[in-house]
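Friendly challenge for the regulars: who can give me the structure tokens for this chain first? No prize, just bragging rights.
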Amino acid sequence: MTLGEVQETNKMIREMNLDVRTITMGISLMDCAHSDLQVFNRNIYDKITRLAEKLVKTGEDLERQFGIPIINKRVSVTPISIAAGGLKTDSYVPVAEMLEKAAKEIGVNFIGGFSALVHKGFTEGDRKLIESIPEALSVTERICASVNIGSSRSGINMDAVKLMGGIVKKTAELTADRDSAGCSKLVIFCNAVEDNPFMAGAFHGVGEPECVINVGVSGPGVVKRALEEVKTSDFETLCETIKRTAFKVTRVGQLVAQETSKRLGVPFGIVDLSLAPTPEIGDSIAEIFQVMGLEEAGAPGTTAALAILNDNVKKGGVMASSYVGGLSGAFIPVSEDHGMIQAVQKGALTLEKLEAMTCVCSVGLDMIAIPGDTSAATISGIIADEAAIGMVNNKTTAVRIIPVIGKGVGEIAEFGGLLGYAPVMPVNGFSCASFIDRGGRIPAPIHSFKN
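First reply, four minutes later:
Bragging rights claimed.
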């Protein structure tokens, strides 16, 4: 890097909220398998604490050396429904508690992988894992769970969709004293990726190596500031500016990833360049839309603006690193973006508009609070809609939705930290229960037959 690039990067950090959002160590638990619960738990605890022992310290050392904020240090593991598939136990809650113990021992913020992949059907281990999610998330603080219920190659497992509506509702009820915050650590995916470093959906896929370092970089404030310089320019200039900015941000992630990999002696996996907002002023995707010319997020043109942003972030990132992966693009969570929160409160942004925007964003319906009396069937319907978008468009989509028990439309749910707060949004009140009750599997679209 030239002196000018160093100075430019320092300015991004000081004035534009540039940060490395996470260093995530992926760890395979395949060799920890055992039929005895105590042996399995000891195996996973020993392996995680051994491999990730220096993860947090290394991240802190890099922060001091390069002056780059590294917000979270995290671990992702093999989906527990796979690693623990041979356990002779009725519940995987004790496994979640052991993962929590390991996470506390090494000092990471979150540990992801309390997960199941059921896009084509259930194993016995999958069912045990899913049924354990509500209690597991209610008795732990750092555990994150995810379930993949569909893919473009296999279709949508509607039995899983129906089941997950009830699981979300039960998780909300068990954490009602915390504004149902357990649901903030549960993601339901279509087309989940194996190398995602961002929580709550991170897990260490079966195609990944024994251990790997993945880094997630975020810079909505940097993109916003760059676009302010070309506020009245045409779309070609707008796109070029986003690409050039994304390139610079990704280079920061590449540097941190390579240094972390070198110091820990662990292979470097991917850099995930995702514009993930925070509740901080100036670190908002919604504010980027405003600089692009929209009065508020949700105004006509918002989906087009998001498509421009997502595509050019990816184009710039791919040129900056040979190993861009994960989700990479733009996240549109409500609770974590103060501009999105304001748009909801002003009536500019609705659940239906957010669903339309998910056709072109990185993930999907993210950190959305809905009334606590919303039925499990309605939640399943929302999951099904989002999965259909992912399946047909051959992209990752997800639902992280929070029915806030005891609260209604317009009230505020407080989650704290990076998770922020969210106004409770209205949900379409017409029933989809008979549709969800059909069960079975929605077949894959015709374009899935590529061989």
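The chain has a mean pLDDT of 90. The radius of gyration is 21 Å. Your move, everyone else.
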